Every structure is written in C-alpha cells, then in structure tokens.
Amino acid sequence: MPLLVMKFGGTSVGDLDRIANAAAKVKREVERGYDVIVIVSAMSGKTNELVGWVEKTSPLYDAREYDAVVSSGENITAGLMALRLQEMDVPARSWQGWQVPINTTSAHGSARFLSIPRANIDQKFAEGMKVAVVAGFQGLSPEGRITTLGRGGSDTTAVAFAAAFEAERCDIYTDVDGIYTTDPRVSSKARKLDKIAFEEMLELASLGAKVLQTRSVELAMRYNVRLRVLSSFEDTDETSGTLVCAEEEIMESKAVSGIAFSREEAKITLFTIEDRPGIATAIFGPLAEAGVNVDMIVQNISEKDYDEHHAGAVTDMTFSCPINQVARAEKALEDAKAAGKIRYDELIIDTDVAKVSVVGIGMRSHAGVAAKMFNALAAENINIKVITTSEIKISVLIDRKYMELAVQALHDAFGLDKA
Ligand code: ADP
Ligand code: ASP
Ligand code: MG
C-alpha cells in the first residue's frame, strides 16, 4: 500500500473545527488508496503556554521536566485527531513518541533521532488500520525519559517518519499555501515558489524562515524525501504548494531565490583585545563551553597600542549570537577575564539588531550579488554592522528597526516579485 505522511502545524489544529478540517484532508487521501501517517503539532499557542508555565515554576528548570511538560500539547491533538477520524469511519489510532518508540538522544530540548522502529505501526496497518496519528516534536531518550526536538520540531518528526516508512511524499500542511520568496507577512510582494532546492531551503530555514525547521530539511535532503509545503485551509491536490527538491529538478536559477531574516539577534563587541596567536580560541572556547551559538564574527585590523595595559598590538572582536544567550555569553566572557585568560577594555552589547540574508544557488554562477545587496541597503540609508558570506548566501546585521524595510528593498532589488 502506498504511504503518505501528512503533518499539520499548530494553526491547522488550532481548534476542534480545524482538526475536523485536517481530518477531512486525511480521509481524502485514504479514499485515494493511501495508508497515512499523520504528524500533529500542539494547538497554536499551547507550546508557548507550557513553556511559560515551566519558566514561571522554575527559572533554571530541569530540562527533563521541561520536556515532560512542553511535549504534552501534541498528546492532546494526536488523541483528538484519531477520535475525529474514527467519527468519520476512518480506522485510526494515536501514538505518543514513547509508544512507537521514537528513539532519540538525551539532549533534552534539542534531541536528535536515533531510530524509529516500524514494527508497531506496520503491524496495525497490516491489521487494517488506515491512519497512524503520531504526536510530533517528542521522543524517548535511552534513559527512558521524554525528549523534545526543539521548537518547530514536528516538521522534523514528519520527515523522519517519511524516511523510515519510505513514504511517497511528506506533506507539511500549514497556514500559508507554500514557500515564498520571503515571509509573506513581512512583504506583500512575496511570491510563492513552485519548487525550491534543498540547499536553499536549508539556508533560509537556518537563517530564520520559520516555515520549516532546519533539521527537517537536512533529513529530507539526506534521505531524499519528497517534501512539500501547502495550505491546510485551501483545497489542495498533487500540484499544490511548494516542493522542496534536488537542485537538478529546478530549471530557473536566479542569483537570489529568497530572503530570510531573524529578529532574535544580538551583537557583542570586545574592545581592545590583544592581537596574538590563540586569542580567538581564548574568547570563543569559553563561549562554546557555555553553550553560546556564535554566528557572525569580525575581527578588526590590528593597531599598535602603547598604553599601560597593552604592551603589543591590539584589536577589537565582534560577534553575534541569539538574543536569549546574551546573559550566558556575557558571564562566560567576564569569567574568562576574571580568570586572566582574556583581556579586554570594554564589552559592548547591542540587542537591537536583526540579521537579513539573501539566499540562492544561482550565486555560484552570478557575480555582483554582494554589490547589489549593499547598494540596495545604502539607497535606503541602512547601515550594515556585520557581513558574512558563504557559497549561496550573504547575511548582514543591521538595526532591527530597519529590518522590514531592508527585506522589502532587497526583494525589489533582486526582482523576486517576478517569476
Ligand atoms: P506551523 O504552525 O504550521 O508549523 P509555522 O508558523 O511554524 O507554521 O510556519 C509557517 C509560517 O512561516 C508562516 O505563517 C509564515 O509567516 C512563516 N514564513 C517565514 N518565511 C516564510 C517563507 N519564506 N515562506 C512561507 N512562509 C514563511
Ligand atoms: N509545538 C511545537 C512548537 O510549537 C512543535 C511544532 O509545532 O512543530 O514548537
Ligand atoms: Mg512550524
């Protein structure tokens, strides 16, 4: 029997009517002859509420109990979805992660899959069950504790099941009708793409586009899962939405295919550090140990400084990290300074920045993308604080108040509104 994975995000299961709407979509696929594995998120807002309860109860919480609490939203929707399908005469049952079992590492809050044994679910399909409804976002650690996969993790559950069960396709149903050139909530000129390459989606996701969790794209790429994003609120068929696929399947290759942004950035500068071999590792070693995800880095050109503190050449180092890791970063640097491992005159923290990135596999063959990007930002009088590039992306850090303006200006400059 051919098998499909259908994932419904939070808004798509936000209330009982929406669960019924999603169930009707599932039933349609069963009638077309598919066995279906449905992956559900928690009702929209539920996970945030649960996270809030945990943080209020215990600010420095035990990550195992955090996972026990925040995974529970998905349990409710899995059960309700199975009940709704049964009411529609579709043989269905629900599974929580531990019942499958979805085996993961014990990295609570950001666990990774180890294995998804098929036997349990396969046996039920063999007995006539048509739909397995699985709670997304959660798993089971080797120690027998409940884990979660990081925010947005149900996308990754869906792709992992599609790979494990060799599904014909993995359909991600959400509140937009596909993947756009940028977030349609930020630019009204955003254009829906028919196809996007795995590499591009991977970059867009990791640079802030929340439409798919980064890990889900990584897994889809590794296991060659046909991954599609489409609307749960519109009538859909095999041609709807956006297909995430191998580069070879895509004809057009503009220099830039999409723009991503992230509001949750902070910039930290260490002023007047020694410029000597080993200084970068002395700074970034303690940050890594403290679990700070350093992103962009710039080191200034060294200058000679003859003040009483610094005998040799000095420079400044700037880096960016997620805004919610600033306190941890600050403490790690201050501790390293107190222990005599690094020296700096001043630590300047800027929490009013955002990162805007242009992404495209076409960059490999088009010259002048950076110049065009900087030109478009200059025309809007937007100052660039940090720049990083890779083969298929260019990112800049700018004042957060200009973020929307920057996205729109770049969208225009690269002609993304036109096919
Ligand atoms: P779900 O709850 O279904 O998982 P998410 O909120 O996680 O949905 O992801 C869908 C949202 O992603 C959209 O509502 C949209 O605002 C946002 N988004 C960001 N970038 C893009 C993009 N390039 N294309 C489409 N949606 C995007
Ligand atoms: N409910 C989880 C979250 O809000 C997982 C998901 O929806 O993908 O992050
Ligand atoms: Mg999501």
Word description of this protein:
The chain has 419 residues and is an alpha/beta fold. It folds into two domains: 3-175, Carbamate kinase, CATH 3.40.1160.10; 249-419, VC0802-like. The chain contains twelve helices and 19 strands. The protein has helices at residues 16-31, 46-57, 63-70, 72-87, 119-126, 154-164, 198-206, 214-223, 279-289, 326-338, 369-379, 403-413, and strands at residues 3-8, 35-40, 92-95, 103-104, 113-115, 131-135, 138-140, 146-148, 169-174, 195-197, 227-231, 242-245, 258-274, 297-299, 303-304, 313-322, 346-359, 386-390, 393-399. Strands 3-6-2-1-9-11-12-10 form an eight-stranded mixed beta sheet, with helices on both faces. Strands 13, 14, 15, 16, 17, 18 and 19 form a seven-stranded antiparallel beta sheet that branches. A hairpin with a 2-residue loop joins strand 18 and strand 19. The protein starts with a strand and ends in a 6-residue tail after the last helix. The mean pLDDT is 95. The chain binds adenosine-5'-diphosphate (ADP), aspartic acid and magnesium ion (MG). Residues 9, 152, 155, 210 line the site of magnesium ion. Its EC number is 2.7.2.4. It comes from Paenirhodobacter enshiensis.
Bound molecules: adenosine-5'-diphosphate, aspartic acid, magnesium ion
Q: Can you tell me the number of structural domains? A: 2
CATH level-4 homologous superfamily of the largest domain:
Acetylglutamate kinase-like
Question: What is the terminal-to-terminal distance?
Answer: 38 Å
Give the class from helix and strand content and strand pairing.
alpha/beta
Number of strands: 19
Percent strand equals: 25-35%
CATH architecture of the largest domain: 3-Layer(aba) Sandwich
Counting H and I runs of at least 4 residues, what is the number of helices? 12
Mean pLDDT, rounded to whole units?
Answer: 95
Low-confidence stretches: none
Helix content: 25-40%
3D shape? globular
What is the spatial order of strands in the main beta sheet?
3-6-2-1-9-11-12-10
User: Whole-number radius of gyration?
Assistant: 24 Å
Q: Say what the CATH topology of the largest domain is.
A: Carbamate kinase
Largest sheet: number of strands, sense, barrel closure: 8 strands, mixed
Regarding CATH, which class of the largest domain? Alpha Beta
